[in-house]
Task: structure prediction
Amino acid sequence: MTTHPNSFNSPDSKETHSFDDLYEINISRRQRNLNHIDNANFGLFHVRTCIIAGIGFFTDAYDLFVINFVSIMLSYTDSDYMSYNPFVRASIDMALKMSAACGTLIGQLVFGWCADRFGRKRMYGLELSIMIVATFGSAMSSGSFAITTWASLIFWRFILGIGIGVITSEFATVSKRGAMISAVFAMQGFGILTAGIVSVVTLGAYRESIVITDKYIDPVWRIILVFGAIPAILGFYFRVTIPETPRFTMDILGDIEKAERDINNVLKREDPLIQYNPICVIDGPGATWQDFKEYFSKWKNAKILLGTSLSWFVLDIAFYGIGLNNGIILQAIGFGYSQDTFSILWNLSVGNIIITMLGTIPGYWFTVFLVDKWGRKKIQLMGFMVLTGLFLIWGLCYSFVKQYMAIFITIFSLCQLFQNFGPNATTFIVPSEVFPTRYRSTGHGISAASGKLGAIIAQVGFLQLKDIGGSNKFVDRLILIFACFMFLGIFSTLLIPETRDKTLETLSNESPRIIVNRKHKRKASG
Result:
């Protein structure tokens, strides 16, 4: 039988399709698959995906914020630490807290790009592997003639940061997407809380020994650090069993058949797949430097990346400026002051737990329940506005407020509440929604890396400036500086779109760009 050069004869059917027909067929199949994802009922797979991805965020937050306790504990175990001049001590503390942020900045850029090139699933498994190795390396850090414990720990914290590098957004239904992403992100709150609880429990177990000698703080901080590997190990298997996201499979790999199978499997759809001849190959637009420049050279796309990056940058200056220095701030107001080492460490750990319970965790979950009702942009604007006011009040009334512990803790907790029921959550959610599939991880990585740049600047600024005029005398001015950055966040938010109730394809500012690869046309025509 002779086949027309511009037609295709299916072995499964006597019907003949032209290549233009195949193009329309595959556009239709792609849209049908997207509709299945966007309009699916919220089910067990969505819960499972949130839990698995959430384990990673739990571990990320635990590992990043546990350094609050560890850095103070290390100062009691290093016999030479107090003999260093104040500048050296401040530099060591700064390097220890900055190392993970520096690694994270690099990891977010590199893994963001790699996830768009090689797939989300592959990169998430690699990230967890790096985190597990680096966590054990951190816990086993020790000094020698050639290297100090501090230097070894700083190195492993940097490697850990690289491993802390969006998959949920691509599996989420439109109506529940904000809640799903924010629920995953909210696991950070439990990670921060667990860091405090593990510190209290471990300190309690070694209480009698620490009272005798500070040397027993050494196993305490090592146990606290190594605990971070436990959820990572538990989550490793489950995280790599998540299938590749259907959008990546269709739009980047060009395999509509596999995407359909994955969708039917995860959504437990019973309708059989419609079989099409495999001669039709779909070429999705790949992530290339030329295409990247072309896409972001358009102001409507560039302004979104600018808005997400600036918002995350200004937010993290305050979020990490305060978050990684909770212990210093609590010490500055004399929270739980005591003469013995155990009581100091115990009180600081308990203080962090109180603030996390009062402000951090409620803030995350307010976002989970309201983000799909209020919208991302409204919550982010509200958060930046309220934080501007709170930081102004806190900074201007600092001398008065710190005399009254209850008032101080209330303001501190409110700041934590509106950071998380506000820009800390939405600066994560929006970048995972507004970019096309081929640049979703890259765009999110650039935005997140901008935030980590803000975190690094915050650490350098906080630790170098806080003692101007005396020990912790400049903290009130630093809080006022944070207020200025929160004010800037109001304007950066105006650059981003509202993403509520919109599909990821609508938000990417692009029409479908699937094309039929004609390289097999000669085979079809004989």
Q: What stands out?
A: The chain has one domain: 37-258+281-507. Strands lie at 7-9, 16-18, 282-283, 515-516.
